[in-house]
Write a structure and sequence with these properties.
single chain; about 60% helix
Amino acid sequence: MSELTVSAAIAASDTARLIEFLEDKTLPIEQVAQIYDAFKTHKEIVGQVAMNLSLRTSVYERDKEYSPLMVELLIDIASNPVDMGARWAVAKNPHTPVEVLRHLANDSINLVRALVATNPSTPPEVLEKFFSDEKIVRDGLSGNPNTPAKLLKVLADDNDKMVRMRLAENRGAPKEVVSLLLNDTDPDVAKAAEVNLGGRA
C-alpha cells in the first residue's frame, strides 16, 4: 500500500478506496492524516479516520502507537461537527489530550460523556463532576483508575451488578474499596474482587 496509491485515491476523490485504506490499522499515520486533511468535511471519512485511530490504540499498551500526529488528529476530530460518532472514538482514546477530554466532558451527547468517564487519561476533578450526571455517564466511573476513592466507595454499593463488577475489576481502585466487594451478594462480583486483590503485590 504505497504513498502513491493513497495520493492517487485522494486525487481521484475515490472515497470508497480511501475508506478501505483506513480500515487497515497499519496504514502509516502520515497517510491517515493526509486522507483526513483532504476530506475533513466528509462524514464517512472522518468517522473512519477516528475508527482507525481507535483500532491502532490499545488501552493496555498505551504508549505503543503514540505520536504527535495522532494527537493532532484527535484534537481536530474532537471539534469537527461533521460526525458525532467520531467524537466517541476521540472520547475513549487514551492519547486524547486532557484539554480535549475536558471539552468533551461537556458534550451534549451522553455517550460521548460516558466514554470520557471511562478514559484513563481523564483527570479526577472532571470525573467528580460526572458523578451527578445521568446513569449511563456515572456508570463509567467505576472502572476508571482515576476516579476518586470517595466516589468508588459509593459505587461499591450501587444496585447495578455491572457497576460493581467494573469496580471489582478496577486495578486502580484502592484495596480498601475493592475489599468492600469481597462479600458481594453476587458471587461473580465477589470473585472478581478476590482476583483483583490477589493479583496485587
